[in-house]
Amino acid sequence: MRLLAACALAGTALLAGCQSVGVADPATGTAPDGPYLQTADAIFDPVADDVAGTEACDGVAGREALEVFDRVAWPELDVAAGEATLTCGNANGAGWRHIADGHTGDFGELADEVGSSWEDVAWFAIDQALEAPTSVEEYRDDIVNYDVRVELVGDTGDVERAWIVTVGYGLSSSSIITSFPDEVDP
């Protein structure tokens, strides 16, 4: 389960506000009315998955932890389970500010489809990629990419569009470097 900003982690205050992530199981058939986003393990809920926007990092140092996500193991690459820290970061480097600077429009495309914010969709996708990835691939010796397929389910219940959301994770830093969606065939 992930922690949000007002929670304490090892004595360090996080920045986003303590709340649980609402994760609905697509297999239970409890799909919302209208178009929605889903992964193989969860349905995006714009209310339950509402998070603080980029203002959560206003006036905060780049190395400050914004969120700590659980991360599954990937034995094929000898990657152990653990945690992935999303820092406020900086626009030219890594972290939430980097994602906001370079990928707001990319996540905004998904968010627009379901009437949500890019931040909420990005947070949901990052969480899903780290906890229930479709695949994990080596990017470099010290970075792996956790990927998850995110689907847009339309009013008819059919998948209309799909994206692979990549989360770049630094093995030595235990930090999230970036995250972005790439559209793929549904």
Description:
Keywords: Signal. The protein is of the alpha+beta class and 186 residues long. The protein has a domain at 36-43 and 65-184. 18% of the residues lie in helices and 32% in strands. The strands form 3 sheets. Strands 3, 6, 7, 8 and 9 form a 5-stranded antiparallel β-sheet that branches. A hairpin with a 2-residue loop joins β6 and β7 (143-153). It starts with 7 loop residues before the first strand and ends with a strand. Residues 1-23 have low confidence and may be disordered.
Secondary structure topology:
Layout (H helix, E strand, L loop, with lengths): L7 E2 L2 E2 L22 E3 L26 E7 L10 E6 L8 H19 L3 H14 L3 E6 L2 E11 L5 E12 L4 E10 L2
Antiparallel strand pairs: 1-2, 3-7, 4-5, 6-7, 7-8, 8-9
Helix pairs in contact: 1-2
Specify Rg, calculated over alpha carbons.
16 Å
SSE run: EEEEEHHEEEE
In DSSP terms (H or I, runs of 4 or more residues), the helix count works out at 2
Beta-strand segment tally: 9
User: Sheet with the most strands?
Assistant: 5 strands, antiparallel
Helix content: 10-25%
The shape is: globular
Percentage of residues in strands: 25-35%
Q: Can you tell me the residue ranges where pLDDT is under 50 for at least 5 consecutive residues?
A: 1-23
Distance between the termini: 29 Å
Structural class: alpha+beta
Mean pLDDT score, rounded?
Answer: 86
Attribute tags:
single chain, 186 residues, alpha+beta, five-stranded antiparallel sheet, globular, disordered N terminus, signal
Write a concise synopsis of the structure shown.
The chain has 186 residues and is an alpha+beta fold.
